[in-house]
């Protein structure tokens, strides 16, 4: 029994309470979060760190100063996505990022049990789709460097005669032979592949190499341990069960994907080098077969066999293994990681020697066979997307998720958009380089001195104007609907504020803010329309390119004059649109490289798109959450274990997603001392719809059961935040919609007009402080009850170590192995 305090003894100071702020997209300065001009860094580095006010730096040494109030603390992570200027170059990796999202947007599955075959098939198809994007990017670089420059321009006197830098390629020189020119031009796509490998390896070491808190949380095994579920193709795609029920983000290895990233990086690097090798070897082999040279033809066939073997090996590596999440997997597949890129590089060197062999009679004419290559690649991507749609639909029918975006087809939609972005970027670069090389002539027309890029790229450009026109009509319909909603709701706004005098202008502004925020809920159908139109028009472009073999304007020359004029207009305007888009893209990246404000704006895109680990594409921009989530987990686990205090983690917008992910990673003993306060949170409204397997109703309900102290604030005028649960449970999570503005008109408390805050400044609402204080009180009661149970069992409850014994004392089943330290 506890001993009574001695007469006159000073009662011990109550344990500290800590409020840990986590900002959202676009970041926030530490002084802004803490409302202090001179914050100090408590822990962390120049990239991500925890800050406090100067007077609170030694709060643990003087807990008596903080009776009745928490110690404010801020975790700032914005420099993970919008730091130095080099990150502006990540814009070029946008298709890879969108394709990586397709992995995480798969439909939910039933909790517990082994992953179904459909989940493994889904992960396999996404990885193959991501691999095709790498091949597409390198093939586009080959089209520019090998076809347009080394083959067409260098083989045309009209092109080389006007450019001094191509003088060494003119007839009569050693480099004049086409094979040698192709080998020289291949250095550009090979260097691009090497750059992608370097960026992926460098960003891994800087962003994603933070291990989870094994020592504090008791997760996983020692370095070198492997997930027992690995072995079959995509075995780790579902992550296994590992005792975390229907909360996938609670798996110990979720935020540590070193093995799969290294494996995929090696495979994609080898695929890029093999693509370059095929682009160089194919024309040389075709020439040798046509000329009847027995020796070179035999050598070419041997090289082709080696290239085919390399391609099969790359596919085997990509298909063999998916993510493993049951425990942190520190092992590397040394053979694949080291030998695969090295073998592909050696094979590329052999191809250079083969292509550089002297062939005096060889002359470069026409185009390289890019139409066939790009067409096959486009067809393969379309088949992968359709396969993803079939698998996703099957998963969604098996485990329906209310509110899932596009009926469970969010993942296939993301994959299709990634392919479309890759195609537009590839076509735009090829079109612009062709325009630059042939001067005033239009690429692919009879008066053009150069054949120009593949016909398929011209067809892709031609379908862009109809696509944009259709999307403009869809957007206009959504705007008309929003205007009607604003008119309908404006009349009832004043009635929500008791005693307010109606003001039509004020009501229209408030109703307009609500109608604009509601447009977020129509985004899935807009994206669905984009995907359907893209798929249909892309299929039409492929059929047109393969059927006629001519650019759209030439294919429609003999048709009705209106049809011919429309085809010419679509081709020309599409070419200009692609060119303008690429120029704007490059200008935006250049501006972001120089201007920190623009770089911060671009960082908002990465805040949303790079939250997820690189599970499908290793060349995607790095995942900042693999640094931020372990940071927060270490901080909460270490602080509560050291002080025995209570902690409220307070997350705004994207910060609420990081906060929830970190809470999922906490051991049960630490979780009993932690409360979660979210506001402006996209957990349910965006992440729950687009990523139902990880933030759907099931996982969020599980988080609510495991973390009773959770409150969420939201506004009807907020286009991002919303409710996160359906209201089930003994204690509701959501509070809202909060009034916005807080006052309709002027009164004694608000003498000036109150602003419509939308997604900002939730801390200014009186509900914020009230809910935070209520969470701290509930935490105090829960900690006291846990301590009483632990004292009755003869155990001291600490950072999760006696969690199983406490569960037994309460009559509940013990925590499963691996969930408590």
TrEMBL record:
Transmembrane parts of this sequence: 125-146, 182-199, 266-285, 297-318, 339-357, 372-392, 404-425, 457-480, 523-547, 576-593
SUPFAM superfamilies attached to this UniProt entry: alpha/beta-Hydrolases
Biased composition (Gly residues): 233-243
This protein's UniProt keywords: Membrane, Transmembrane, Transmembrane helix
Keyword Cell membrane recorded: no
Annotated segments matching region Disordered: 210-244, 801-821
UniProt cross-references to InterPro entries, sorted A to Z: AB_hydrolase_fold (IPR029058)
Protein's UniProt name: Integral membrane protein
Organism expressing this protein natively: Streptomyces polychromogenes
High-level lineage: Bacteria, Bacillati, Actinomycetota, Actinomycetes, Kitasatosporales
């Amino acid at each position: 029994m506890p001993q009574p305090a001695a007469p006159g003894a000073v009662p011990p100071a109550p344990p500290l309470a800590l409020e840990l702020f986590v900002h959202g997209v676009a970041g926030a300065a530490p002084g802004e979060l803490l409302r202090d001009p001179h914050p100090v860094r408590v822990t962390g580095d120049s990239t991500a760190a925890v800050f406090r006010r100067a007077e609170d730096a030694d709060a643990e040494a003087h807990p008596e100063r903080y009776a009745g109030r928490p110690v404010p603390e801020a975790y700032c992570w914005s420099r993970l996505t919008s730091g130095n200027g080099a990150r502006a170059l990540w814009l070029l990796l946008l298709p890879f990022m969108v394709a990586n999202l397709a992995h995480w947007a798969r439909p939910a599955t039933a909790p517990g049990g082994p992953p179904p075959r459909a989940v493994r098939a889904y992960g396999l198809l996404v990885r193959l789709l991501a691999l095709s994007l790498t091949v597409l990017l390198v093939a586009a670089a080959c089209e520019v460097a090998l076809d347009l420059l080394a083959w067409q321009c260098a083989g045309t006197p009209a092109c080389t005669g006007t450019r001094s830098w191509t003088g060494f390629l003119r007839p009569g020189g050693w480099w004049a032979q086409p094979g040698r020119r192709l080998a020289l031009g291949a250095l550009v796509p090979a260097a691009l592949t090497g750059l992608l490998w370097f960026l992926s390896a460098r960003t891994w070491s800087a962003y994603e190499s933070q291990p989870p808190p094994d020592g504090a949380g008791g997760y996983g095994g020692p370095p070198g341990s492997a997930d027992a579920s690995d072995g079959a193709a995509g075995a780790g795609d579902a992550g296994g069960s590992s005792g975390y029920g229907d909360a996938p983000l609670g798996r110990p290895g979720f935020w540590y994907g070193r093995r799969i990233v290294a494996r995929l990086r090696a495979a994609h690097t080898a695929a890029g080098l093999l693509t370059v090798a095929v682009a160089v070897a194919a024309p040389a082999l075709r020439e040798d077969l046509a000329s009847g040279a027995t020796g070179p033809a035999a050598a070419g066939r041997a090289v082709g066999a080696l290239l085919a073997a390399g391609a099969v090996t790359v596919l085997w590596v990509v298909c063999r293994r998916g993510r493993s999440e049951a425990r942190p997997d520190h092992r590397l597949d040394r053979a694949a990681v080291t030998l695969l890129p090295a073998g592909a590089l050696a094979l590329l060197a052999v191809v250079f020697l083969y292509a550089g062999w002297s062939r005096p009679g060889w002359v470069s004419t026409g185009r390289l066979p890019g139409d066939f290559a790009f067409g096959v690649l486009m067809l393969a991507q379309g088949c992968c997307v359709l396969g993803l749609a079939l698998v996703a639909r099957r998963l969604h029918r098996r485990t329906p998720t209310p509110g899932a975006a596009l009926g469970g087809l969010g993942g296939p939609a993301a994959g299709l958009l990634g392919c479309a972005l890759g195609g537009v970027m590839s076509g735009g670069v090829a079109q612009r380089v062709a325009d630059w090389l042939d001067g005033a002539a239009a690429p692919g027309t009879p008066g053009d001195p150069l054949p120009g890029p593949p016909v398929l790229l011209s067809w892709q450009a031609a379908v862009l104007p109809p696509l944009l026109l259709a999307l403009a009509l869809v957007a206009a319909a959504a705007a008309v609907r929003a205007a009607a909603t604003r008119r309908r709701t404006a009349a009832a706004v004043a009635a929500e504020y008791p005693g307010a005098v109606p003001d039509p202008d004020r009501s229209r502004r408030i109703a307009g803010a609500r109608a604009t925020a509601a447009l977020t809920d129509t985004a899935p159908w807009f994206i669905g329309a984009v995907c359907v139109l893209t798929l249909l028009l892309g299929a039409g472009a492929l059929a047109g390119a393969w059927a006629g073999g001519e650019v759209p304007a030439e294919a429609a020359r003999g048709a009705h004059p209106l049809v011919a004029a429309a085809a010419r207009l679509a081709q020309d305007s599409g070419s200009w649109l692609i060119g303008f888009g690429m120029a704007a893209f490059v200008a935006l990246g250049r501006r972001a490289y120089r201007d920190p404000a623009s770089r911060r704006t671009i960082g908002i895109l990465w805040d949303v798109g790079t939250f997820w680990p690189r599970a499908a594409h290793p060349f995607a921009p790095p995942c900042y959450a693999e640094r931020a989530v372990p940071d927060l987990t270490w901080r909460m686990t270490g602080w509560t274990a050291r002080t025995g205090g209570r902690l409220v983690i307070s997350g705004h917008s994207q910060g609420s997603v990081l906060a929830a992910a970190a809470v999922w990673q906490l051991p049960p003993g630490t979780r009993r001392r932690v409360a979660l306060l979210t506001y402006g949170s996209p957990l349910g409204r965006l992440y729950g719809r687009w990523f139902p397997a990880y933030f759907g109703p099931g996982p969020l309900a599980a988080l609510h059961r495991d973390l009773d102290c959770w409150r969420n604030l939201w506004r009807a005028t907020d286009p991002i935040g919303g409710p996160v649960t359906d209201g089930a449970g003994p204690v509701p999570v959501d509070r809202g919609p909060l009034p916005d503005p807080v006052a309709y008109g002027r009164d004694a408390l608000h003498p000036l007009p109150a602003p419509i805050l939308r997604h900002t400044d939730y801390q200014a609402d009186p509900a914020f402080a009230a809910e935070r204080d209520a969470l701290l009180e509930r935490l105090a009661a829960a900690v006291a009850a846990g301590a009483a149970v632990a004292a009755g069992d003869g155990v001291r409850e600490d950072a999760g170590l006696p969690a199983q014994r406490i569960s037994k004392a309460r009559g509940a089943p013990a925590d499963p192995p691996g969930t408590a330290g």
